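input
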Amino acid sequence: MITASHNPPDDNGIKLIDPMGEMLEESWEAEATTLANAPSDEDLVEHYIKLAEESQVHPDTIANVIFARDTRASGAHFVSILTQALKVTKAEYTDYKLLTTPQLHYITRCLNTKGTIYEYGTPSEKGYYEKVASSLKTAMQGRQFSGSVTVDCANGVGGPKLRELIKHLSSPSEGGLEIKVVNDDVLKPERLNHQCGADFVKTNQRAPPSSHASPLTRCASLDGDADRIVYYFNDSDGSFRLLDGDRIATLAASFIGDLARSAGLGEKLKVGVVQTAYANGAATAYVNQDLRLPVVCTNTGVKHLHHAATKFDVGVYFEANGHGTVVFSELALKRIGKTEPHSPAQFSVLETLRALTALINQTVGDALSDLLLVEVILAHKGWGPKEWDLTYTDLPNRLVRVEVADRSIFKAVDAERKLESPPGVQAQIDAAVGKFKNGRSFARASGTEDAVRVYAEAATRSETEDLAQKVATIVRQAGG
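output
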């Protein structure tokens, strides 16, 4: 997938997709890095041949590569370079033109499961829309959407693709969802992610300037390639309220857990939530204490969350930035599919649960299917954004960037929540945290620059700021 996601429009890059439509298996990342950074053409060919031999890939084996791009101006140039390379290596390929990243993930899985018992759907863009539309209709049987949802598409590929999806959905006059699409200008590439999109909203804690939504109106923002989504609304007093990935995860886990219990599968399906250390402590407490569901914490990065989610029968994972999905195990899908209802109510619950397994894009975080998942749940619960927001109160939190001479000396363990080096630093952080009510803080080295990011939470905004600065000082002194 040729995209740079939420980055500025002049950036571009690639996302590599595994045969099952999931993110690239981690052991291949090092190989990709070596190939990308080969100092010469000769070194590139040498490593390519060596990799093929080590992987026991026969030279006569014909590769089949599919690719697509987002709306960036440089995308077409990247495609021309890629196709030249594919021709040289005698690979078969299909150019799917403009797609969202999750649509290409979907098509990849469909192609590689076609004709098997794991068949995922029709491998085309149209097949994606039809699967989503059909499952949405089933999930909404007997329920009504309340009001509209305004979707900011970051002036990226999600705009035209959401408009195409809407054509396959029931219209508002037929009882369907009213989706108001904004920031969908893809004819001016320089507007991509500019003062709009999920990253802008999450970082600035405010709606895009172009948003003119009325108070208590549901709003959502996608990122540039539509694999992330955050919700938000303006309260009746005008205050901005963000409903981020933590909120989406708790909403989905609560609803799916309730459905499983109502279907008589409560003891047979283990539902769990996967978070990173950046998840708000109030969200973690809500899942543990109110929903009574297990929570697993992993290293930062969607690949770590996805892997951990597969350990549950139903694994719900979202990063706070809005990237996430729900993964159903093979056993869970069998039990949901084969369970016989004992009453009309149980029949309805099972129908909804089955529909959700098709509505959710289980390969990767998908802003379009996640949008509809949230809307289905709110409709079933009869909630607006205010009721959703009131499920728990976020602890005040602060993220501070600290420049250091050498980030490599900061080594984290325990899902990046503790520092094992430099020696003694973690003890200082623990001592600082212990002085604050509901205090929590950790320091994590940046993956791209000589800096350490300090995250802090506490009971009040002023205490959070105080704790963040104390820990930042500890890190600054340790980092020279």
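quick obs: Residues 245-262 form the longest helix (18 residues).
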